[in-house]
Design brief:
The chain is mainly alpha-helical. 73% of the residues lie in helices and 0% in strands. The protein contains 3 helices and no strands.
Length: 97
């Protein structure tokens, strides 16, 4: 019996769950304007995974990188959710409530 797929799926769920938290915190403390840097970082992590010879390690790094890329695309959306009042805004930022 091969449990690799189950392990990778559980890891993916964990990384996605953590992604929700870091997107909210990153937008709160730094703002959504950092999305391009985060996108670049996630892309770099995905590219690094291409050169890792071990399958499982490569898959774990690639999943993490993909989650970072996805989170980067969510940062502007998180900013909109803050503006609509669904999440607290940082009063130290311009336009904070």
């Amino acid at each position: 019996m091969n449990l690799t797929g189950i392990y990778l799926g559980l890891y993916m769920l964990f990384v996605i769950a953590i992604g929700f938290v870091w997107v909210i915190k990153l937008e709160y403390y730094l703002g959504a304007q950092v999305w391009k840097a985060v996108l670049g970082l996630g892309t770099l992590v995905c590219l690094v995974s291409l050169f890792i010879p071990d399958f499982m390690t490569s898959a774990l790094v690639g999943i993490f990188g993909g989650s970072v890329v996805w989170g980067a695309t969510e940062l502007p959306g998180q900013e909109e959710r803050v503006q609509r009042g669904l999440f607290p805004s940082n009063p130290k930022h311009k336009g904070g409530k």
